[in-house]
Amino acid sequence: MSSPDLSQMSMLELFRQEAESQTHVLSIGLLELEQNPSSADQLEACMRAAHSLKGAARIIGLAAGVDVAHVMEDCFVLAQRGELTLHRKQIDALLQGVDLLTRIAHPPGNDETWGDHAGKPEITAFIARLTKAMAEPEDDGHPTDRIHAAEPAAAEVENSPANNGSALSDSREGGVRSVRVNARNLDRLLSLSGESLVESRRLKPFTASILRLKRTQREAGQALDLLHQQLSTQTTNEATQAALSEVRTLMMQCQHMVADQLGELETFDRRSVNLSQRLYDEALACRMRPFADGTHGYARMVRDVGHALGKSVKLEITGNATQIDRDILEKLEAPIGHLLRNAIDHGIESPQQRKAAGKPEQGTITLEARHSAGMLLVNVSDDGAGIDLDQLRAAIIQRKLSNADTVAQLSEAELLEFLLLPSFSLRDTVTDISGRGVGLDVVSNMLKQVRGTMRISSSLQQGTRFQLQLPLTLSVIRSLLVTINDEPYAFPLAYVNRTLELRRDQLAMLEGQQHFSLDGRQIGLVSAHQILQKGELRAKDDLVSVVVIGDHEHTYGLAVDAFLGERMLVVQPLDSRLGKIPDVLAGALMEDGDPVLILDVADMVRSVEKLTAAGKLDVVQHGNGNLTDVKHKKVLVVDDSLTVRELERKLLSNCGYQVVVAVDGMDGWNAVRTEQFDLVITDIDMPRMDGIELVSLIRQAPNLQSLPVMIVSYKDREEDRQRGLDAGADYYFTKSSFHDESLLQAVTDLIGAA
Description:
Layout: H1 11-35, H2 40-60, H3 63-81, H4 88-105, H5 120-135, H6 154-159, E1 170-173, E2 176-179, H7 183-200, H8 203-232, H9 238-287, E3 288-290, H10 298-308, E4 313-318, E5 323-325, H11 326-347, H12 351-356, E6 363-372, E7 375-382, H13 389-398, H14 404-409, H15 412-417, H16 439-449, E8 453-459, E9 463-471, E10 476-484, E11 487-492, E12 496-503, E13 507-510, E14 513-518, E15 521-527, H17 528-532, E16 539-540, E17 543-550, E18 555-560, E19 562-570, E20 584-589, E21 595-599, H18 601-614, E22 627-628, E23 634-638, H19 642-654, E24 658-662, H20 665-674, E25 679-682, H21 691-700, E26 709-713, H22 718-727, E27 731-734, H23 740-751
Parallel strand pairs: 4-6, 11-21, 15-18, 16-22, 23-24, 23-25, 25-26, 26-27
Antiparallel strand pairs: 1-2, 3-5, 6-7, 7-9, 8-9, 10-11, 10-19, 12-17, 13-14, 14-15, 17-18, 20-21
């Protein structure tokens, strides 16, 4: 993949690059000058930006650009000399000039003659207005005198090269060479690196097979030792004894060779996974853009909307360096715009009202982006009047969305959710800015597209906050893996409300449909097998595994076979030739290379509603008919550390294993002699009896020789590891390096799933 450098770009493309950069400088500078007209630094920056654009436009023969930039430069020069103070009248006119320069660089319909023909009257009018504003520096302070830009600030974003996925350019910023890459190529690179990451993890089954071979060899060695003992009591010739000894020697050599190869394979596995992970992380980082790339026009928009409403509003942006997925950043543009306009119109009071309430006359809106707990949080908050809950209750009742008794019992969070309904508004009149009830609805729809959520909080007379919680990237998804008819499926965690395991007595029939109680509500139970047309449900024991999905209005419980745990999955879009597969969002590959389908939860909710309306829902059966008894595998954890014991116990119990704990080697030895276990996990350094002695005793006991044993120890030296394996351990982990997934994977390799 290659990309041209600056020398390969046309002069017009270079000018557009220059215009994009310099108009941004002008916009930021003008907004700062409106707050501090005497700022020498900002005046200098704006003058230089206008001068640079004038020179660039002259080079490529854009006379309209020269004229607009020249009159703006003159205005800044007068301000630098102290002959002109930039009040709102001049700022409005200069901002219109910024809009015109953007349109000259990116003319409507790509008509390069726009400035000389169709746009000529507008440019001439602008020059006249700015010239007049320069000659009449007094500012009357009335918002009605502001000069409106011919195009909204959003047009700058729409027509900017930053949103042209096919544009290729090369620039240097801050000494770092940056390259603009075709979005399709970047997505393909990320997809391939994701596949590489998945493929790198396919070595685990090979490791498991060698581990099984090691166990088989040990069992063969034990059988050979038994044969030797039996033959020693009988008269055999020397040749037989010699052959038997040779076989035993060869068996020991094979065991050592397999152990060595297993160690090398584990090392290669770790290196391969690490390298693939680094490759994927770097490819993913290429999709990420700083939050600042999507915030250029917000300050201008807040300023213009505030002036139009007769309000003084300041926008503060924090977290500009926060990295956000390119696709999510683009989708955030419209929702954040709606939230900002909503904050100005509904939240921020007039200067008179704020002064009467003891607040600064200028309101403040804060836009913040940050990472938290593996998610992206975007907060839009204001210091305005807040939401009047009594007014909200009245509006809900007036629109007949609920009755008065129900509304009176709703919590604050439940009341605020009504703001997200289509066409819902607290305004009785419709204006250019609000009143149609589409703003928050747009935000809600966008969040559904990207698997995000929103929380609203408000304090009367203190302000309102909208918190958007979104995934860091759309290419990786946190999922809940389940089995449905012995096949794995993934639920996006953003759409999973809760997971439950219900007993038979917790289910009830209401109006011909199964329900269960959850937080005081009756939730309908539906078999995921029926939705996906995948056979019949097979529950474990007398329990049904349930995934709760849906929103406050439509919530359902989907019965599945079993939970497999959480996974980070690399999203693989399905072939477009397949069309929209019902109830399926996308595909992914698991660590062993097996495919898994990511379910479309919104589509599944619609499928449930269709079956409910048609009265075709199946009943989830209990009893011996569709229930399969499952015997949980039993694990003994031996460790003198309470913390480690509890950590391993919870980890294994959550995966369905039955766990027994022992406080030291002696306690563990007594346990294995009195109870049957499928696996023993032991530490080394323990009082009364250490782990090495425990493993040796287990291997010497005829009835315990085939019992798998895993050592988990702080000792990470090679000699310690070899000592544990020589004693008969099947696996050796160091506490400093292992994590939950690796431990569970090792347990699964040794004894299978719970």
